[in-house]
Amino acid sequence: MSQLRLNPLTDRWVAIAVERASRPGDFAPRSQPFTADGRPCPFCPGHEEETPPALETYARDGRWLVRVVPNLYPAFEGRGAFTVETLGPLFSQAPATGIHEVLVFSPDHSASWADLDDKQVGLTMAAIRDRVEEHAGQSAVRYTQAIVNHGREAGASLEHPHGQLLGIPFVPEELAAENRGFATHDHRHGECILCATERAETAVGARIVWSDDRVSVICPFWSASPYEMLVIPRRHEPHLAEAAPGDLVAVGRAVRDTLAALTRLVGDAPYNLVFHSAPHHADGPFHWHVHLLPRITSVAGFEAGTGVRINIVAPEQAAAQLRDA
Q1: For residue 308, what are the domain limits?
Q2: What is the pTM of this model?
């Protein structure tokens, strides 16, 4: 089983998951849906026996369109409580209990989120909502992270389009920091920081990539990397699982269309999609949203050592280029 170890310098948990080193590699040419060792792609139709039994299947006319399956190489697994064991003043550990699932959001091996049609986007967002809601019912899971890693440089180990859902037994520092940001702005100004950001960016206009009556996509003023985008549903809702169906679909379509624009602009770049929702059962001013993080530049020593990112494309320039694309 994986193990959590606390870094006392940063007060952040690290997951030690040595079994994940056995994951298969892929990224053969897209016309060849096989893994690196010659086996058929486990996510392609007809090879369902290569994965554990599906937890959820979304089908139409007798063929599946979206599947959710347990991850064969889980970083978090088991239903036990989050119990921290202290081995001295410097060493604290806990079992990495939780849930780790794979979301196969297209049967097409050569597709990506940017290629999904409207119905497929809707099914994918419904699957994310349903699984987050299921995780929330597990008492030992405090937070669920939904992600999509596109490309090897972004952390994907298989080419077939897929995402992951990880239900974990603690609230990670990244979410805790966002929670503090929401709480501080609400205390000082009496409103949600993302509602205020969406309204202010709409008024300025320079960093808006896409906007309609349900969702806005911006290159935020504080962008830390080239073409970083923030997808904000206009309706305030802390929990993704409780968002209106129309808002879920609108966010999924906005992600698709901006990814298509990014591809036209810079090619098939690696990227991460990160869905942030309030921790399960938490109340407060949080506003669910999506981070779209292209991996166009690398993190160098200064950035790794200080946490201060250097962005070589101003967000105003990035938004203008994405709008044109």
Answers
A1: 174-324
A2: 0.92
